[in-house]
Queue: 2 jobs
Job 1
Amino acid sequence: MAYAPTEEQEILARTARELLGTQPVRRLRALRDTHDPDGFSRALWSEMARLGWLGIAVPEAYGGAGLGWRDLMVVLEELGRCLAPEPMLSMVAGTTALLLGGDEAQRRAHLPAVVAGERLLAVGYQEPGSRFDPTRVATRAERAADGWRLTGEKAHVLDGHVADWLVVSARADEGITLFLVPRAAPGLGVERLWRVDGRGAARLRLEGVRLDASAVLGEVGRGGELLGRVLDRATIALSAAMLGGMTAAFEMTLAYLKTRMQFGVLIGTFQALKHRAARMYVEIELARSVVTAAHAAIDDGADEAQVGRLGGAAKARCNDAFLLVANEGVQMHGGIGMTDEHDIGLYLKRARGDEMTFGDAAWQRDRLAQLDGY
Amino acid sequence: MPDLDAFRDAVRRWLAANAPPSMATPVRSNEDVCWGGRKTTYPPDVQRWLAVMAERGWTAPTWPREYGGGGLSSEEAKVLAQELARMHLRPPLVGFGLTMIGPLLLQVASEEQKREHLPRIVRGEIRWCQGYSEPGAGSDLASLQTRAVRDGGHYVLNGQKVWTSYGDKADWMFLLVRTDPEAKHAGISFLLMDMDVPGVVVRPIRLISGASPFCETFLTDVRVPVGNLVGEENAGWAIAKMLLRFERTMIADVFKERDDRSRLLATARRYLPTGTDGRLGDPLLRDRIAQVDLDQLCLDLTLARSRERLKAGQPPGPEASIFKLYGTELNQRRRELLVALAGPQALGWEGPGFDEEELVLTREWLRSRGNTIEGGTSEIQLNIIAKHVLGLPD
């Protein structure tokens, strides 16, 4: 497996850093305080589309660049560094669902528009009380003469407040099934949620949402399996963003240790802080290894169990490491770290938001144990 | 590579003809492995295996032929290692001569010293030990006090070394001595000392885990010829550090063993109830197993990343400093978990009521506490990372 970035990936990273360098973390405060309905910048999203970022791992036939997940990782990491609230993760999850489960007509209908930045996707799979388990689906899908009726509630749908199309799981008689639901579908209610980490999300109410037969994504009754594969990949994408976030938070803290004076000396001279900084560094390096390996596993066509295992390992690692770095970051900044004015607190909030997305560390470890038969 | 293929054929034929069949049985303990030396008598097959391999210089395959080595290229040495592994043959010789002082002498010793010591290491005639730490010089190694005072053609040594691994079985010691009491780092010299001379007393140390290979070595008016000085007088610290790097790589290698995962699961299955769903009945211990497994995976992947950098000709990245720190702590967590899984059956010390596996598990747990102390404590590793990787101020 190749860990070292290719020349192309280095160029991609440089471009990303140049563009995102103009998008400071502090814009999150403005989006929050003005109650921006989108919660992100449409202008930046268009620019990202123009640069080809939205279709990095999408085949050229659907308007993408046909590159790999290692390339995608580079951009996700840079977005994570500046806590970009743009709906990139939902874009990755949605396009992955279409690529893995969609038929040719569905792919052609959606992927080019998504890659061009003209259409936003979101995936709704959690429900009140389902916590992180994608197989606990109470939402019903019933057959009707002209297609399907969906009834139920979806919780914590990341970017659901802006999505033009939603991938929604529901239980049919045959089992869990995925559906492509347009925002304008009759009977669909979307309620914006305001999260602590500044990311937009929604609660969906499905009151007999009418869908025609072509709305089914993949096979009827086989949506649980498909959803699992989609979530494994989305989890890997999220871990790349988390890696970027923890790296930036650590660099910020390290810089503070090298400039802040107390007792007449730099606080970075204190061994009590040095050793903790060194431990954070170790955790981040370990996270980088597993996150890279997980992306490479998708590119290398590893089997589903291996992708799931590495994805779970990457997420479990990043959950703990990001929270450690963010908590320590606030602590080492002292009083200023507790103020809304300082950016380190925004990283702490994101670490928590990311942790609760696609399963916390304990949940991921339990999944790893299950995959390995204990 | 037709040349390599021909070499492989030759190696294969030669090994088949010369390796005693008993040397293809698994190594069960340290006693099964030949460390060489004047003080241990090995079984006849072990001696014969050492003799035939040493004859060709294949105990030190890549060392130059003029010093008794095999003179093989690294590709040829790899072929030899592969063939030994394929035939499940034990290494003919192990020890600090081959892994530590030999490679160091090749780099820094005088021609005369190389000719005197290297062939005897290759043949397994001399077993070496390391005299670095002292009662007052642990993490702060450079504060060592063992004095070496020049007296004609000799240095006269007085002092005490501690944590001398296999000091009671070794024939020669490479050691650090103070030749200038006024300077700290710049007052240290690197000496080679025959241990079978008057004034050297070795005493084994008993650890919390029981018997151990560690010893303490007392030196009283020991006379060492000036010709046994490696490098210049008072310039031993740089040599000492070079050797420490050999040691740390060796310690990291120890934690590459991969049978531990199946051992964790087998231990868990043996002592824990199984739930109705077939999973281990204790969710907390299950979580700890998954965590240790995850930690090992991440460490392995980081090692692979580091090896890839080395192969690409890049210098070892800063991640190399992680291995000693994280590998040893992970090993401790694994040993603690094994004890937790075995429950009260991990309380045995000796005698009836506990099987061999359980007694070993208990002692391995105790022994593992030393992993984060020996070869540079975890605190020293954290200092190194903070200073050299993160650039934090002194």
Job 2
Amino acid sequence: MADEELIRLEDVWVHYDNVAILEAVNLSIKRDDFLGIIGPNGGGKTTLLKVILGLVKPTSGKVTVLGGTPQRNRKFIGYVAQNSLFDHDFPISVLEVVLMGRYGKVGLVKRFSEDDKKAALKALQTVEMINYKDKQIGRLSGGEQQRVLIARALVAEPKMLLLDEPTTGVDMPMQTEFYELLAGLKYSMSIVLVSHDISAVSIYVDKIACLNHQLYYHGSKEVGPEVLEATYKCPVQMIAHGIPHRVLKEH
Amino acid sequence: MRNALAAGVLAAIACGIIGVYVVVKKIVFISGGIAHASFGGIGLGFLLGINPVLVALFFTVASALGMGFVSRRTKLPQDTVIGIFWAVGMALGIIFVGLSPGYAGDLFSYLFGNILLVPTSDLILMLILDAVIALVVFLLYKGFLAISFDEEFGVVVGAPVEFLYLTLLCLIALTVVVLIRVVGIILVIAMLTIPAAVAKQFTYDLKKMMLLSTLVGIVFILCGLWLSYELDLASGATTVIVSGVLFLVSFGFRTLIARRRPLTQPP
């Protein structure tokens, strides 16, 4: 079961207005993977996640999610989008935000049941945000909001978690706590983490892929300098600053 | 006068519920477009000799669906689509009225509203529309919340976001029709935004916000009605002026409270 394939991308191309965002991407994500995808801004990281979720349709290539189409099976994926996308002044409580994650299990006209509420409270407990359940979402700090959004993704009991730049706007001590939280979750689901912050990501993930329109991934955490060069297209500085050597070899 | 009071309350209920979505989902502009396009229906009613409000009901729902459908299914920018529907709807109304035989004497009451002239037949229509709006919001509350707060996540968890969005636009169209007699087409957007904007300053709970904005709407409309009677002014415009002034008062009050007890205070 551990090497059961959850996601498979075969020769996937995505174009926006004739500009290629993803070029011939092949990727396989297995059940026990904790994968970090790094790469520069504008390199197609968010697009890749949206392709997996069926939110962006590839120009060509094949995407398989749990053996089916993304549209059919994305309900098994917990998605945490970039933090700043919602209106922080929106009149909604933390508990209501998390309950939204149960939408697919409830249907169009039914109300959320006691079981849904229990699941939401449990998810809030997992991310240690239970004490904030009645707060308005905008009153929380960036790191706290991020935890709530993870709870929202967890509440539907997904088989995998997709996180898009989850530490944006989160201060350093909170970031560490945040990665520890993920490290705790990785035993119960596959996790894919997208970030431009190479050093932080590489400490916690088990495998690293580099994405700059093309994807460089060999199913391990070893990232050779030639790959980073190809990814970032500015070899010297990126290697000097972004990639501590311990990340490459010692893990 | 009793009809006027009933019309005011019915209008406040519709705009209290739907205005909340207009404000929190930030769809004020498309609501303005739907409101103004309804004039085409009023004009068509004059031309056909049928109750203009009834014709406007179908015309407004159709133009709301048109706006929603075209802006979602084409690559045209949404505000462009709204602008086109807005202007074409009004222009159709003007043409239809021009083609109508006779003198369209009460045209002004549709454009600027006259709560004192609401006939009982329109009151019954308003009551039915209020019931439809309340029922649909009750049934789809969860879905409307999902698409208002985070539409993309709604897609991922399997909410039928396009259906929900088009349904919400239809409810806005119904609300517009309810409001036409009270404040008029030109001023509908005021009642769709101001009561909800006032309510938003005092609660972070969407349901309470609906209740509060309905009450606020009733106060606005009754104050407007009373003032317009006392000062012999147009009732629709007076209601909007009252709403604007009371919004400023509530905003100032909220700011004062916030200074003493900051809203962003840590838990």
